[in-house]
Amino acid sequence: MRLNGPLLFLFTLTVTLSIDPASMAATPPDPIDAAIPNAAHMAPYQDQVPIRFLTRGQNPKGWDALPQFWNRSTETTKDPATGDTVTRQVITIKVPLGLSAPPPVPAENPMTLAKWELGKRLYYDKILSTNGTIACATCHHPTKGFTDQRKTSLGIHDALGGMNAPTVINSAYNRLQFWDGRAHSLEDQSQGPPTNPVEMFAGKGDAWEEAITRIRKKSEYVQAFQAVFGHAPTRDAVAKAIATYERTVLSGNSLHDQADLEMRNRVKEEETGNYTLKAEDYTAALKNAFARQDTAALHALGLDSKKDAGQAATYGARLVNGRNLFFGKARCTNCHVGDNFTDNDFHNLGAGVEDGKIDADEHGRYASQPTGHKDAAFLGAWK
């Protein structure tokens, strides 16, 4: 049909109105709490570097071959999206002796190098606090055993907390987080301090909305979150990144762990099947410590790494006697068991009790139990 005259004008006007910019809604920003990943924004699969854990129990030969805690190598694998064969880097963490299992990693938060680097940066950045004065590392610093070595911690505006900061070391193995167990994972735990007015929050609005707004103003953070998570910074992504870093804060390889390895090697050679630690195993571990000048381990026993080398047998006998008491007559293992020497449970040892009464702020595990599941047996009980 041929268009002309008033009809042509009407058609043109109608089209123009249908695309009027004023009528178009603006693209909403990513939500503060969580966002759906956009794979197009993420780093290509071949550039993503997975982090994996390896214990000696899983693969003794492979573990022995790893030269250090943090090991880089390459792998050939298939891109799950394209099916293409790619070669990419991989990080293998040599889990220290004494930790028989790798740290549990949630399926929804797989570990990668870029996520770890992002989490580490956030851990030491004071941007999560309202006035930029407190970071996770303020109360959990590596030079202080990932604590602050204080009886009670200091938070924002020097606010005095009610208790000390628990260590991050091996916290990946905790069944529950915090002294009262109110968090169920590292991801859950990392969301607490930014909302706490005694720790990091001194604002008036929503703590996480304020924190994420501050983070989104830094272009380098926005780029990093896009590459790792496929969206702008969110509370969910911050929690996952920090937990990824904390999951690698591991400690082991103590003299006791080394003695245990000496014992296992000895029993394997003897073919006795009697896996019992003896003084000779501790002595062998001590001799190795003297040989490599392991001052940290030796100083803990009051030994000089150079002057006391001849004391290995004497202290080996003392150590096995202490071990036998710990696991036997002294009944220490009623509570201190497993790789981390904890039962991960909660006990009332009298903390917070005065004149037979427990203050409302000292209810411990009982206070953090959900309504409908309160158990008076946990009143005043702490990890």
Which descriptors apply to this entry?
33% helix, two-stranded antiparallel ribbon, 383 residues, 5 strands, mainly alpha
Describe this structure in words.
- By secondary structure, this protein is mainly alpha-helical.
- A hairpin with a 2-residue loop joins strand 4 (353-354) and strand 5 (357-358).
- The chain contains 13 helices and 5 strands.
- The strands form 2 sheets. Strands 1-3-2 form a 3-stranded mixed sheet, with no helix packed on it.
- The chain is globular, with a radius of gyration of 28 Å.
- The model is unreliable at 1-25 (pLDDT under 50).
- It has helices spanning 5-18, 60-65, 113-124, 136-139, 186-189, 207-216, 219-229, 235-246, 255-270, 279-291, 295-300, 312-327, 365-368; strands at residues 51-54, 70-78, 85-94, 353-354, 357-358.
Topology diagram in text:
Elements: H1 5-18, E1 51-54, H2 60-65, E2 70-78, E3 85-94, H3 113-124, H4 136-139, H5 186-189, H6 207-216, H7 219-229, H8 235-246, H9 255-270, H10 279-291, H11 295-300, H12 312-327, E4 353-354, E5 357-358, H13 365-368
Parallel strand pairs: 1-3
Antiparallel strand pairs: 2-3, 4-5
Quick summary of this structure?
Helix content is about 35%, strand content about 5%.
Radius of gyration, in angstroms, nearest whole number? 28 Å
Gap between N and C termini, in Å?
83 Å
Q: What's the tally of helices? A: 13
Strand content: 5-15%
Mean pLDDT: 91
- Give the oligomer, counting copies of the same chain as homo and different chains as hetero: single chain
Main sheet: which strands, in order across? 1-3-2
Outline the low-pLDDT stretches: 1-25
